[in-house]
């Protein structure tokens, strides 16, 4: 092969190699610069988010939301920044924008536990309770990046608290049954579950929870009080009184326990159906009930009170009844008390909640 041709080929290869090296160098430099710019952008976004979190801690939620928006404009796909934005908007009660921010996240991943929980809170804030409950369930059964079991438990507790506030007893009970098995066994958590069973209208289950606590800690005042409330809800006023006495002994300065104890004692002193009472005592108690019901009705305008009932009550209170007729008179007095109470209910309304009114509770027990 001629020498000139060999030199020409060698020169071409050398030039190609030089060009390749130059391009590779430029690519490396460009990549390096991009990485630097990317790192600077990430640092700026992180700084903005840190500022936003500081503002959130001092209640500047709207300003915090602006910082999070600026961070998202730099890192559009950052899930954590979008969650932080939604939380700030929720705290600022800007529910529309919060719902929009979370909608974008849930479009990408409908199973995201954090996003579903945030959406549930937003919807509850908008008083869309049924929709909010649906998202709480999605959060419970969704995917969590960290500590899934503990997060699901936290969501269940938040949901049951919502249902308790809504007085949705059936739904609350349905959520409590699995929660009872999943929750930790610490006494504080078990006490909370017992109280929630009371809110759900299930005093028997509540009593089981509080009795279990007392087997483990016989000096637990909250458990005695809770057990007292469970017995009280079932109309078992004697054991309720005993439980409130035990609670009061352990927490003598607790005003709420003292009031419940006094209410139990009032009911027990008025109830003419208690076992072991002599005919005379039953009759005397029936007169007390008539007097209380008449007094309640007299709180209304006298012109609205049925005069016939007032006259019958006054006659019963003044009557002298022979001992052999006291049983029959007791039944007549109880019927009269019920009529007075019903008339009072129509004209006056309840000045005291029925759950705190000894007369109302005694009448409810008699009617069972």
Short description:
By secondary structure, the chain is an all-alpha fold. It is built from 17 helices and no strands. It has helices at residues 3-57, 61-74, 79-91, 95-108, 113-125, 129-140, 148-165, 169-182, 187-199, 203-216, 221-233, 237-250, 255-270, 279-298, 307-318, 326-348, 358-367.
Overview of the structural elements:
With 368 residues, the chain is mainly α. It has 17 helices and no strands. α11 packs antiparallel against α12. The longest helix is centred in the first third of the chain and has 55 residues, at 3-57. It is elongated.
How many strands? Answer: 0
Strand content is under 5%
Please provide the ordered H/E string of secondary-structure elements: HHHHHHHHHHHHHHHHH
Shape: elongated
Distance between the termini: 120 Å
Number of helices: 17
Largest sheet: none
- The overall pLDDT average reads 87
Helix residue percentage: over 70%
Structural class estimated from helices and strands: mainly alpha
Low-confidence residue ranges: none
Q: Please state the CA-atom Rg, rounded to the nearest Å.
A: 36 Å
Keywords:
0% strand; Serine Threonine Protein Phosphatase 5, Tetratricopeptide repeat; 17 helices; 368 residues; mainly alpha
Secondary structure elements and pairings:
Layout: H1 3-57, H2 61-74, H3 79-91, H4 95-108, H5 113-125, H6 129-140, H7 148-165, H8 169-182, H9 187-199, H10 203-216, H11 221-233, H12 237-250, H13 255-270, H14 279-298, H15 307-318, H16 326-348, H17 358-367
Helix pairs in contact: 1-2, 2-3, 3-4, 3-5, 4-5, 5-6, 6-7, 7-8, 8-9, 9-10, 9-11, 10-11, 11-12, 12-13, 13-17, 14-15, 14-16, 15-16
